[in-house]
Amino acid sequence: MPLLSGMFRSAAIYGSTDTIGGRVVGRQSDAWARRTVDAAMPHRQQARPPAWIEARLQALDDLHRKGVVNDAEYGALRARLGA
Q1: CA torsion 63→65→66→68, rounded to 10°?
Q2: What distance in Å separates the CA atoms of residue 71 and residue 62, rounded to the nearest whole number?
Q3: Does 36 reside within a domain?
């Protein structure tokens, strides 16, 4: 009802209802633009590595901490796992 009474008021003062339509369209166009951009470019979440890779990385970290694997081997093995 407020929209209709605003249109009547606008028609009485300005002689047309375009002022109400402009405000409504302006608000709607912002919402439509936001939805369009979000649909076209969805927010990507960081992809987590599979659980088996996480387990192997954790085991590799343990071996490196214990001194079984040196720094060069550690780097090469992490690269092979894609981390």
Answers
A1: 50
A2: 13
A3: yes
Range of the domain at 58: 51-81
How many angstroms separate the CA atoms of 31 and 51, rounded?
A: 39
Q: Which two three-digit tokens encode residue 51?
A: 């659980």
What DSSP string runs through the chain?
A: -HHHHHHHHHHHHHSSSHHHHHHHHHHHHHHHHHHHHHHHSPPPPPPPPPHHHHHHHHHHHHHHHHTSS-HHHHHHHHHHHT-
Same domain as 8, residue 33:
yes
Mark the ranges of the chain whose per-residue pLDDT is less than 50: none
> What letter represents residue 34's amino acid?
R
Residue 61 and residue 68 in contact, taking contact as beta carbons nearer than 8 Å: no
